Amino acid sequence: MRPFVYERPADLSEAVELGAAGTYLAGGTNLVDLMRQEVERPERVIDISRLPLDRIEDLPGGGLRIGALARNARVAADDRVRARYPVLARALLSGASPQLRNRATVGGNLLQRTRCGYFYDVGAACNKRVPGAGCEAIGGLDRGHAVLGASESCVAVHPSDMCVALAALGATVNLAGVHGARAVPVTDFHLLPGRTPHVETVLGNDLVTSVDLPPGLPAHGAYVKVRDRASFAFALVSVAVLLHVEDGGIGTVRIALGGVAARPWRAYEAEELLTGAAPDERAFREAAVAALAGARPLRDNAFKAELARRLIQRTLTELAGPS
């Protein structure tokens, strides 16, 4: 690990000011690994772990605000999250090990980097790590890579489970910066690679302060994750689904996919097909096909598109049964 300057700001305003010239450190479960492997080489590390950004509090109207420094384990165990947003609790419990969940934060989870092997290998060409270097994953070992939203510059996927649930929930990410505060829908927070895969979010020099969960969503939902082994593995494909059926028709439906793109993938086309439809096998099959209509598999990962289709259809079918 290379030498760096370590600073611990006393408050949020100082953190925002220092962050313009440094890299934020919260739980450290991703950043420290990247620094050890010299994938990231920050000259200045800003430790925000002791700022008062870990509260979980109710919002007027029934929503919930989760502080950026709230630990993943604590969020998953919170009674309000479990009762009103169980899909988020299930997604968090699907990620990492208990030890890491006790350390990792909500803000850090939003900002974790891809687990692409070429990104972690400093001897390999990677446009995400070194802009303009090329992408060895294209034509290389591509089994775990993207089938949606990729580009000629990058085919890496976003690794978060939590963010897939947040996308289905329509959460909002609150930011603080030198120019003031702003809020960004989580579905707009992460960027597709295009020609600039090293620019992964809309963050800029802002600091994530909290995440807002909206009120009025059906609690009936599921997070399902398919992976190579039963624990502590990133998703090959995951799906977060919310479903509310009333009077024989689908009233509310939300579908988001993980493991298939550089950001959590919201399946808007599938949702549109399902809204107002009868909750039957035909509707679910057509929605699953629509969700993956834009898939562009690589040499070794075509199975991901079919796996995602089947996972969507199966999850919808199970949710449509007795709750």
TrEMBL record:
Pfam families documented for this protein: CO_deh_flav_C, FAD_binding_5
Domain FAD-binding PCMH-type residue range list: 1-218
PANTHER family assigned to the protein according to its UniProt record, in alphabetical order: OXIDOREDUCTASE, XANTHINE DEHYDROGENASE SUBUNIT C-RELATED
Name the record gives this protein: Xanthine dehydrogenase YagS FAD-binding subunit
SUPFAM superfamilies: CO dehydrogenase flavoprotein C-terminal domain-like, FAD-binding/transporter-associated domain-like
Family matches, as InterPro entries: CO_DH_flav_C, CO_DH_flav_C_dom_sf, Diverse_Substr_Oxidored, FAD-bd_PCMH, FAD-bd_PCMH-like_sf, FAD-bd_PCMH_sub1, FAD-bd_PCMH_sub2, Mopterin_DH_FAD-bd
UniProtKB keywords: Oxidoreductase
GO molecular function: FAD binding; oxidoreductase activity
